[in-house]
Amino acid sequence: MQYTARNYEHLIGTPGFSDTLLKNHFTLYQGYVTNTNKLSDALASLLQEGKTGPEYAELRRRFGWEWNGMRLHEYYFDNLGGAGKGGPGSEFSRLVTQTWGSYENWHKEFTTIGTMRGIGWVVLYQDTATGNLFNLWINEHDVGHAAGARPVVVMDVFEHAFLTDYGLKRADYVQAFWNNVNWTTVENRVKGR
C-alpha cells in the first residue's frame, strides 16, 4: 500500500506562519510519507522472503514513527487555514463545555500544555466509545496515543513548527495557531466526519 503526500500549498500566506516555515514543514511531512512508503515496501519484501528476524522487527517498530508522523501532520495541517474566521461549532462547544465548564477553560488547558517544555504534540481527543473529550501531550509520534480515540484538534509543538518564525517564543506560536484554526474541520471531526 502506497501513500501520497497531500498538497497543503493553500496554507501559504497563513497569517503568523512565514512561507519559509510552511514550506520547510511541508517538506518534512513529505519525508514522513516517503519513509512510510519505503518501510511498507521493505517490510513486504522481508516478509515475502521469510526474513522475520531482527531487521524486520526494527523496521516494523520504525513504521509507527513514520506513519504517525505522516498522519499527525495531516491532522495538523487540515485543522489550520481558518484565518481567524468563525469560531467553535455548536457540537464542539457543547462537548467542551460539558467537560471543562467553558470553552475558555478548555482553551487555557490546551494552551498550557502547548507551552510546556519539550517536543511533541498536543491533541484534543474524543473517545469514540463514550464521546468524552480529553487533552493529551504526545512526546513522540509513536508513543502515547490514546487507543480508540479520534484526534479533534492537533497542534505540532516540535521545534520545526515554530523556531523559524518565533525562535524560543513558543507562546507566540501557540497564539498564531489559535488565530488560524479551521473550526469547520474541528466541528466535522467531533461529529465523526
Q: Could you characterize the architecture of this molecule?
A:
The protein has 193 residues and is mainly alpha-helical. 52% of the residues lie in helices and 11% in strands. Strands 2-1-3 form a 3-stranded antiparallel β-sheet. The two termini are 23 Å apart. The longest helix is centred in the first third of the chain and has 30 residues, at 19-48. Helix 1 runs antiparallel to helix 2 and helix 3 (90-100) crosses helix 4 (103-114). The model has no long low-confidence stretch (mean pLDDT 95).
What is the end-to-end distance?
A: 23 Å
Count of structural domains: 2
CATH superfamily placement of the largest domain: Iron/manganese superoxide dismutase, C-terminal domain
Report helical residue fraction. Answer: 40-55%
Averaging pLDDT over every residue, what do you get? 95
CATH architecture of the largest domain: 3-Layer(bab) Sandwich
Q: What is the succession of H and E elements?
A: HHHHEEEHHH
What is the global morphology? Answer: globular
Looking at how many chains there are and whether they match, the oligomeric state comes to single chain
Radius of gyration: 18 Å
